[in-house]
């Protein structure tokens, strides 16, 4: 928002032929400079979901974790078709428009009965306010991570599953470039080793000739 505001202000200054340095207010944000946080493990995610007693918020938490949604997107889903799509979720609108998302882990759809839709009764004038309602609930419950951390955890999980980067980016509503810049910085030696072991265990992988 800072960069967008400064971009508009720079154009206004240009039109007005006014001498003013806008660039010094634009900041130096970029996806590659996002500070890396400690993400919750899948075990911690499941544990915290179990601590939530309110059925609607329990469902909301499960959807965020299983589909890597932005917090406000919980309120913009095609829930009429959801039970008929075998776990595939259609996001109707949001920051980046309509898209389809596949569950990771798919077992959570059944374990957490996500097909039994229970949307929290929140109101908000816009997506920002809807997202704030979700964040406020997390804070009130003392949850040790933020709603967006569930989205980040989905992104890392997609890599652990071996989901192609372009597909993961599309499901998250990103360009491939932004997805790589944002999430590949989270990959550590553990993830690299997991990926290598998956390659080795692939029965169709090339085999070195032996003489």
TrEMBL record:
The keyword Zinc-finger does not apply. It comes from the Bacteria. CDD domains: INT_Rci_Hp1_C (cd00796). Residues 34-197 form the Tyr recombinase domain. Keywords: DNA recombination. InterPro entries: DNA_brk_join_enz, Integrase-like_cat_sf, Integrase_catalytic. This is Site-specific integrase.
């Amino acid at each position: 928002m800072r960069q967008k505001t400064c971009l508009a202000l720079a154009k206004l200054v240009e039109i007005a032929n006014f001498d003013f340095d806008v660039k010094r207010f634009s900041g130096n944000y970029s996806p590659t400079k996002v500070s890396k946080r400690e993400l919750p493990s899948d075990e911690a995610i499941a544990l915290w979901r179990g601590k939530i007693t309110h059925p609607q918020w329990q469902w909301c938490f499960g959807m965020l974790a299983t589909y890597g949604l932005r917090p406000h997107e919980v309120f913009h889903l095609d829930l009429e078709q959801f039970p008929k799509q075998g776990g595939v979720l259609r996001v109707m609108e949001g920051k980046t428009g309509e898209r389809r998302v596949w569950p990771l882990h798919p077992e959570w759809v059944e374990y957490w009965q996500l097909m039994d839709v229970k949307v929290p009764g929140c109101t908000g004038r816009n997506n920002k306010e809807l997202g704030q309602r979700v964040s406020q609930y997390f804070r009130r419950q003392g949850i040790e991570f933020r709603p967006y951390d569930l989205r980040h955890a989905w992104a890392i999980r997609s890599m652990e599953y071996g989901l192609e980067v372009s597909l993961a980016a599309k499901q998250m509503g990103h360009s491939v470039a932004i997805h790589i810049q944002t999430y590949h910085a989270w990959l550590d030696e553990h993830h690299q080793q997991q990926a290598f072991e998956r390659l080795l265990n692939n029965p169709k992988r090339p085999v070195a000739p032996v003489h």
